């Protein structure tokens, strides 16, 4: 069997549209970051350029790796990531109450970002290896464990936001693999129950003493986030403050925006985490609605490009990896933009390619590299 | 399964398309939501973002001064360097900022907890208002804090005018003090104004007690505001040249000055001359009711009470058996003792049963039924008539009066003169005292009213209780022929520039019916107490002025079988010493009441204080070259005059234009040069509004 066709013509079958979309988005991100990190902030956008460089190197490196190697290395990659998460408990750096980082010299590495990739590779391998249709309960136990172990480790850091994103990504992959109808029914039931619990605990007007299922078990800040999501005007000066300030920033951008470096909410520091989690608010305030639509379209290009890679993949592993990367990016974009516009509760989630941060940038780029790799090897066996 | 062994996953294609549709739908949801925020609700959020840029910064209005009648400043302000925390801008307040403040300012753990709680308790709009956490920084502390301010987000340092009571404890009960507005007051005072700039902020001071409280609205100005551009942490933004960026502003309006009728020099003399551990001195303008001096001892220091009193100190003040917080001149009542006898005498004369010449024989006591009431002089006073009875304070005479009249006619006269109800000095809380009548005794005394109670009442014992202020009103009314004036301590309100805005004239409460003859008998009797041999206060006689007065020695503990000398008794069982006087007797200007709590005897322990005050009053009057009175015109400049010690002796220009509603100008100083103990007093003029003499059977009373 001839296995190395792609390597002789390195630029063949590169998903150019996807790559252009990614690079354009990242450049818009740096331009926006330059405004968000204007004095008196430190100019972190310069570091972001370096991270983008590292990310692009990662894309190239991953795309040239032997496809078989990646598949064979899936389990080791997954295990190493798990070990890194466990090690975090012992040698991790504590910031904002969570142990989420390794500090290596000037670098701060966030293993959870890489765990996402490890998890989706592992799920892809499972659904590639066991391809009989209609997964029942028993056959879904291994992938459930593969997802839940790293999710649990991330959750105890605690990093609720990343854990949620991993849940959504994993559920998307499982749904994509098409479980049996009973499984779907149970999943639907669980979702309905979740909505019901939320409704009971937060929406339904209740007389004291309130009867709640989970609300009394949540930490105060988590409870407040859900409250301020479902009732944004409940505590404008308190827990809803950041959500409201973000909405003010976005809404006051109007159609054409206040202009680069002209955002008042940004300049007067009303936005929390304006380099990272709330970067979109800066963009919306300064660039306006029209350019926001353009940014959403760029993400659309990236997502559809990723799905295009999946569609053209010649076997399940590649298709599942591509779908997993696409799902990972989609959920982060959806949750991040949703939260800064008041649609979803606030969780600490970065906006892929826009938010400042090396780990986030590199993990997304690793995913993109995987997409390029899958695309380049799609005709390995037929051509 | 090995790679390459699988077939092409064609079955995934429709799912991929489905996923693509879902992603696009998701992005559409985001786009629609963005449209809703950025296009539909743009105006709303745009306005909010503009609002965000400005912070209203308060510009505190200076509080009005309190001056004495001559313009001398009694209460003003000095700058205090205060620390504020704005909770909304104070990040990591409890964990970092407050511990840092604790280190720099040397707070104890309790103070740290208190401040932490204060910041935590701020909810809603309060989170955006600076909370006062420490007053009166020392200069070094201020410098250290200023140097560390970048480490202390949300912490502001501000020089705030702090109330300064120049004379310390002097007049404390009348002036009052200030402390922080409570949560309840904050809600109440700001409640009806829905404005975003409520008149009071948390941490603001509000007047407590006295003039500070009752004239809070006058003294308090209106704070101004300036809109400054701030960032989300509340830091004021500056332009490139360092100027504070600011929008529109509203300058503060200074509070108005309150001018008291007190004369600080006379007040100082009263404080000096009063010997008691506890007690009160009240000096009134006889013909208007304005307060000239007012001592309540022991006192407290309003400077200490204003913002800095510790709970321990407050508890100590409240537990002090001498009760320094109690306003003894008006908020505490005492048996008037013999000073009450003028009331009994007036009742006796008005009843018609007694004439000035009616004689009573005193053999040291008076028998009624099976009981015997003792006179203070065991050997008895012999035959006494009205004047003599007052002069020597013969109890037996008044026992006889009570026996003949019963309690009610005496109570009616007492009530008409203002006893048993508050005088409405208005700036300080008062107690009404007790003027018992038969109905009162039927209500409160087991067994109801009996004649013996009238006997006790007639000599100012029994259940009759008066405040020193009430007694001053009673003696003023007797001095000026029956006109009962409401005592007042504030004479006018001036603008910060010194323009008179409001003047308070004398307030006549009622005219007690009193014939000139009755008036003259009373005045003559009181003159004889001080000026004739045998009077109980002759040691306090003045050389240049005829003072009329009455001593009182109010029994506190029951008399034992053996009469002890004052010094031999326990402090709390000693008698209260009273002296009530007015001068000059022929045309009274000043009424003085002295109460020396547990002081001993009126003649020896209260009268000298009164005569010192009267003496000082006429010395000052001579030095100033004009009478204190309502025709006095305030100095035009708002500047306080130089210290009283160097006050010019040059007479000020007397202007004829009196203050509206005031009685005619007092006559030029007519200081009697020869006291006339034997000579008859000049006939008293008809009181201006006095009704004709009442029928003898109907004692004068309120109409």
What count of helical segments of chain A does DSSP give?
Answer: 14
Query: What helical percentage do the residues of chain A reach?
Result: 55-70%
Oligomer: heterodimer
Largest sheet of chain A: 3 strands, antiparallel
Range of strand content of chain A: under 5%
Number-wise, the strands of chain A total 3
Return the average pLDDT of chain A rounded to an integer. 86
Largest interface: A-B, 65 and 50 residues
Structural class of chain B: alpha+beta
Distance between the termini of chain B: 117 Å
First-last Cα distance of chain A:
11 Å
**Strand fraction of chain B:** 15-25%
Outline the fold blueprint.
The complex is a heterodimer of chains A (383) and B (703).
Chain A: H1 5-8, H2 16-36, H3 45-64, H4 67-91, E1 93-95, E2 98-104, E3 107-109, H5 111-129, H6 137-155, H7 160-177, H8 181-203, H9 220-230, H10 241-251, H11 264-267, H12 279-312, H13 316-340, H14 358-376
Antiparallel strand pairs in A: 1-2, 2-3
Helix pairs in contact in A: 2-3, 2-12, 3-14, 4-5, 5-6, 5-7, 5-13, 5-14, 6-7, 7-13, 10-12, 12-13, 12-14, 13-14
Chain B: H1 13-40, H2 42-53, E1 54-59, E2 66-67, E3 73-85, H3 93-105, H4 109-121, E4 131-134, H5 139-147, E5 155-165, H6 172-175, E6 177-180, H7 183-191, E7 205-208, H8 210-214, H9 216-219, E8 224-229, E9 246-250, E10 257-260, H10 264-273, E11 279-285, E12 291-297, H11 302-305, H12 311-319, H13 341-351, E13 360-362, E14 365-368, E15 371-374, E16 382-384, H14 386-391, H15 395-405, H16 407-416, H17 438-444, H18 451-458, H19 468-479, E17 483-485, E18 490-494, E19 500-503, E20 508-511, H20 516-531, E21 548-554, E22 576-583, E23 590-596, H21 602-605, H22 607-624
Parallel strand pairs in B: 2-10
Antiparallel strand pairs in B: 1-8, 2-3, 3-4, 3-5, 6-7, 8-9, 10-18, 11-12, 11-23, 13-16, 14-15, 17-20, 18-19, 21-22, 22-23
Helix pairs in contact in B: 3-4, 10-22, 13-15, 13-16, 13-20, 15-18
């Amino acid at each position: 069997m001839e296995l190395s066709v792609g390597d002789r013509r390195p630029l063949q079958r590169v998903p150019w549209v996807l790559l252009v979309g990614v690079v354009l988005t990242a450049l818009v991100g740096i331009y926006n970051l330059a405004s968000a990190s204007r004095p008196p902030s430190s100019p972190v956008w310069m570091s972001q350029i370096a991270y983008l460089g590292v990310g692009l190197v990662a894309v190239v490196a991953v795309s040239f790796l032997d496809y078989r190697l990646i598949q064979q290395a899936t389990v080791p990659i997954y295990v190493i990531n798990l070990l890194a998460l466990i090690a975090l408990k012992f040698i991790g750096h504590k910031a904002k109450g969570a142990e989420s980082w390794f500090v290596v010299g000037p670098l701060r590495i966030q293993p959870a970002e890489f765990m996402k990739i490890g998890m989706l590779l592992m799920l892809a391998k499972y659904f590639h290896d066991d391809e009989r249709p209609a997964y029942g309960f028993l056959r879904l136990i291994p992938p459930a464990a593969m997802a839940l172990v790293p999710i649990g480790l991330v959750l105890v850091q605690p990093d609720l936001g990343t854990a949620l994103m991993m849940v959504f990504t994993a559920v998307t992959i499982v749904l994509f693999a098409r479980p049996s109808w009973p499984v779907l029914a149970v999943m639907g039931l669980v979702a309905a129950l979740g909505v019901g619990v939320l409704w009971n605990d937060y929406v339904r007007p209740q007389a004291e003493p309130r009867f709640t299922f989970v609300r009394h078990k949540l930490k105060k800040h988590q409870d407040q986030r859900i409250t301020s999501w479902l009732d944004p005007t409940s505590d404008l000066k308190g827990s809803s403050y950041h959500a409201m300030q973000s909405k003010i920033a976005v809404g006051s951008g109007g159609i054409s925006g206040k202009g680069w470096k002209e955002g008042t909410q940004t300049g007067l520091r009303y936005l929390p985490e304006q380099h990272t989690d709330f970067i979109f608010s800066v963009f919306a305030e300064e660039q306006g609605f029209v350019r926001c639509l353009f940014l959403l379209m760029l993400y659309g290009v990236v997502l559809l490009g990723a799905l295009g890679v999946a569609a053209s993949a010649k076997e399940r592993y590649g298709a599942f990896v591509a779908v997993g990367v696409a799902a990972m990016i989609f959920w982060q974009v959806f949750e991040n933009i949703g939260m800064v516009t008041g649609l979803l509760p606030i969780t600490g989630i970065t906006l892929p390619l826009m938010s400042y941060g090396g780990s986030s940038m590199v993990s997304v780029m690793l995913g993109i590299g995987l997409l390029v790799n899958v695309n380049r090897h799609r005709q390995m066996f037929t051509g | 399964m090995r790679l390459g062994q699988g077939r092409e996953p064609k079955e995934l294609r429709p799912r991929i398309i489905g996923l693509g549709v879902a992603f696009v739908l998701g992005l559409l949801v985001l786009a629609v939501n963005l449209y809703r925020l950025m296009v539909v609700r743009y105006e709303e959020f745009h306005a909010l973002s503009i609002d965000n840029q400005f912070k209203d910064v308060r510009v505190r209005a200076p509080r009005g001064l309190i001056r004495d009648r001559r313009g001398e400043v009694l209460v003003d302000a000095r700058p205090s360097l205060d620390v504020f925390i704005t909770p909304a801008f104070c990040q990591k307040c409890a964990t970092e900022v407050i511990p840092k403040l604790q280190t720099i300012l040397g707070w104890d753990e309790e103070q740290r907890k208190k401040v932490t709680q204060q910041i935590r308790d701020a909810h809603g709009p309060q989170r955006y208002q600076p909370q006062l956490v420490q007053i009166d920084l020392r200069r070094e502390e201020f410098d250290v804090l200023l140097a560390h301010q970048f480490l202390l987000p949300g912490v502001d340092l501000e020089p705030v005018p702090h109330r300064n009571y120049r004379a310390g404890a002097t007049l404390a009960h009348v002036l009052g003090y200030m402390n922080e507005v409570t949560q309840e007051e904050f809600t109440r005072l700001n409640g009806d104004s829905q404005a975003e700039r409520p008149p009071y902020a948390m941490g603001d001071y509000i007047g407590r007690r006295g003039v500070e409280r009752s004239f809070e609205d006058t003294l308090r100005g209106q704070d101004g505001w300036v809109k400054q551009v701030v960032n989300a942490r509340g830091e004021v933004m500056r332009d490139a040249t360092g100027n504070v960026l600011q929008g529109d502003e509203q300058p503060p309006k200074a509070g108005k000055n309150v001018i008291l009728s007190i004369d600080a020099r006379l007040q100082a003399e009263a404080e000096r001359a009063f010997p008691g551990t506890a007690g009160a001195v009240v000096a009134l303008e006889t013909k208007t009711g304005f307060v000239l001096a007012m001592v309540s001892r022991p006192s407290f220091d309003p400077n200490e009470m204003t913002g800095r009193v510790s709970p321990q100190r407050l508890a100590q003040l409240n537990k002090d058996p001498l009760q320094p917080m109690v306003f003894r001149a008006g908020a505490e009542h005492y048996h008037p003792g013999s000073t009450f006898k003028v009331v009994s005498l007036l009742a006796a004369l008005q009843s018609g049963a007694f004439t000035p010449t009616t004689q009573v024989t005193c053999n040291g006591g008076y028998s009624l039924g099976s009981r015997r009431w003792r006179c203070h002089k065991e050997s008895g006073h012999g035959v006494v008539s009205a004047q003599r009875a007052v002069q020597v304070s013969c109890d037996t005479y008044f026992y006889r009066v009570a026996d003949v009249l019963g309690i009610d006619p005496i109570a009616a006269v007492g009530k008409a003169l203002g006893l048993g109800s508050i005088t409405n000095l208005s700036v300080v809380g008062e107690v009404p005292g007790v003027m018992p009548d038969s109905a009162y005794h039927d209500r409160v005394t087991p067994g109801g009213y009996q004649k013996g109670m009238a006997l006790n009442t007639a000599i100012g014992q029994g259940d009759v209780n008066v405040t020193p202020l009430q007694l001053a009103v009673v003696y003023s009314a007797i001095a000026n022929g029956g006109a009962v004036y409401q005592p007042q301590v504030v004479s006018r309100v001036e603008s910060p520039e010194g323009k008179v805005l409001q003047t308070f004239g004398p307030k006549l409460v009622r005219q007690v019916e009193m014939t000139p003859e009755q008036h003259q008998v009373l005045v003559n009797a009181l003159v004889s107490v001080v000026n004739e041999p045998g009077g109980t206060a002759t040691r306090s006689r003045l050389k240049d002025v005829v003072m009329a007065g009455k001593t009182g020695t109010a029994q506190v503990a029951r008399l034992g079988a053996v009469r002890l000398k004052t010094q031999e008794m326990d402090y709390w069982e000693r008698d209260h010493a009273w002296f009530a006087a007015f001068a000059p007797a022929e045309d009274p200007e000043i009424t003085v009441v002295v109460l020396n709590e547990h002081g001993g005897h009126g003649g020896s322990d209260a009268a000298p204080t009164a005569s010192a005050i009267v003496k000082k009053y006429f010395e000052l009057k001579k030095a100033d070259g004009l009478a204190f009175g309502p025709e006095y015109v305030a100095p035009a400049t708002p500047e306080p005059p130089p210290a009283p010690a160097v006050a010019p002796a040059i007479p000020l220009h007397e202007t004829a234009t009196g203050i509206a509603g005031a009685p005619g100008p007092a006559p030029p100083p007519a200081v009697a040069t020869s006291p006339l103990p034997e000579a008859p007093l000049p006939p008293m003029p008809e009181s201006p509004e006095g009704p004709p003499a009442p029928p003898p059977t109907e004692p004068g009373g309120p109409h």
